[in-house]
């Protein structure tokens, strides 16, 4: 009982708008599965794709979305379970869901059988959707940072989708969190709901570098910095406040941005600056397992797939605390 047609959010040209309309349901190839998407998170990457922010073109017309969670309803002959822990995100021929191939902003989505994340039946699909990009990405970034239990990590962009999950994963890993973002709602969420030990408001602070350092117990700065903001400025500040021997992990991808670090301090503090890009299938199953064990509770709001434009408008203004998840039945 797979329908011929389905509802989807489609962009015809770079710059948008997204159009909510009926399109055909695709048939899976031999190594593919057809997933009936129930819920999809909305990542800032989806908005970057609409706006053409990056030096990498999207397919057009495009169904965006890459935090889809659903049920496999059809599969090709070659599909079987495969375990892998390579650097598959770095594959030069990688297919990017919701970017170079159609993604999860539709009711029925094609995926490679070897790459779909296996979600335990006990896990609610609306809550897990944001873990499927945001959660995996920040979990991987925290691992790449080398931060150890008991140490302090600054999460910059802490109130957004990636940031709110980063706070939860960091806490579950035994790290102390300094949240950097702006506004009362994100402050309250970070300190009261997500367990951050300090909040630095980048918009009202007169000196973010000093305030982040002052929020660490010995004033030397955090052991690691996780950059998930959609703004160039913090990418040019982190090296200044990270602790000697500390690590700066770059994850956010603001349009046209450059990293900057003072050579003198970077050398004498022996700091590391590193990029981190999503995660592999091993990271994915580990990140899902944290959720299954009840260690991850990040706030999300559910709205209909038809309301995607409203979500993008709020996202562009930085007004989303946590994540929006789309219900594909509405
Ligand atoms: O694999 C990857 N590297 C990867 C994976 C997934 C997403 C990278 N990303 C990228 C996205 O493309 C996007 O550029 O991570 C970035 C964050 O995605 P998101 O969490 O989905 O975005 P959001 O929910 O809009 O949150 C961004 C937060 O940054 C804050 C905003 O207030 C918002 O809460 N922020 C900004 I804008 N400027 C800031 C500043 N100067 C800041 N926070 C601190 N300091
Ligand atoms: Zn994403």
TrEMBL record:
Protein name: alcohol dehydrogenase
Gene3D superfamilies per record: Medium-chain alcohol dehydrogenases, catalytic domain, NAD(P)-binding Rossmann-like Domain
Residues annotated as domain Enoyl reductase (ER): 15-326
Lineage: Eukaryota, Fungi, Dikarya, Ascomycota, Pezizomycotina
Keyword annotations: Metal-binding, NAD, Oxidoreductase, Zinc
Uppermost EC category: oxidoreductase
CDD domains: CAD3 (cd08297)
Superkingdom of the source species: Eukaryota
């Amino acid at each position: 009982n797979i329908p011929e047609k389905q509802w989807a959010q489609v962009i015809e040209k770079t710059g948008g708008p997204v159009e909510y309309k009926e399109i055909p349901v695709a048939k899976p190839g031999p190594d593919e599965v057809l997933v009936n998407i129930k819920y999809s998170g909305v990542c800032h990457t989806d908005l970057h794709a609409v706006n053409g922010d990056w030096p990498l073109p999207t397919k057009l017309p495009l169904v965006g979305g890459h935090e889809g969670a659903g049920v496999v309803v059809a599969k090709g002959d070659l599909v079987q379970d495969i375990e892998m822990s390579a650097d598959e995100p770095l594959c030069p021929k990688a297919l990017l869901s919701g970017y170079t191939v159609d993604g999860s902003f539709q009711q029925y989505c094609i995926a490679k059988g070897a790459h779909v994340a296996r979600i335990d039946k006990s896990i609610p699909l609306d809550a897990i959707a944001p873990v499927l990009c945001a959660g995996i990405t920040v979990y991987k970034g925290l691992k790449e940072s080398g931060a150890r239990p008991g140490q302090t990590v600054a999460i910059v962009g802490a109130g957004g989708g990636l940031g709110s999950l980063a706070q939860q994963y960091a806490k579950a890993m035994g790290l102390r969190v300094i949240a950097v973002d702006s506004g009362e709602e994100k402050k309250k969420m970070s300190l009261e709901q997500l367990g951050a030990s300090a909040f630095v408001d980048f918009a009202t602070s007169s000196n973010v570098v000093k305030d982040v350092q002052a929020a660490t117990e010995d004033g030397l700065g955090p052991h690691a910095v996780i950059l998930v903001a959609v703004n160039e400025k913090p990418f040019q500040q982190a090296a200044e406040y990270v602790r000697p021997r500390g690590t700066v992990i770059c994850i956010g991808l603001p349009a046209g941005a450059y990293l900057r670090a003072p050579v003198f301090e970077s050398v004498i503090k022996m700091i590391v600056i590193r990029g981190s890009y999503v995660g592999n299938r091993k990271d994915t199953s580990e990140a899902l397992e944290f959720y299954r064990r009840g260690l991850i509770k990040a706030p999300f709001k559910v709205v209909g797939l038809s309301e995607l434009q409203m979500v993008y408008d709020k996202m562009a203004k930085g007004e989303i605390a946590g994540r929006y998840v789309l219900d594909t039945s509405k």
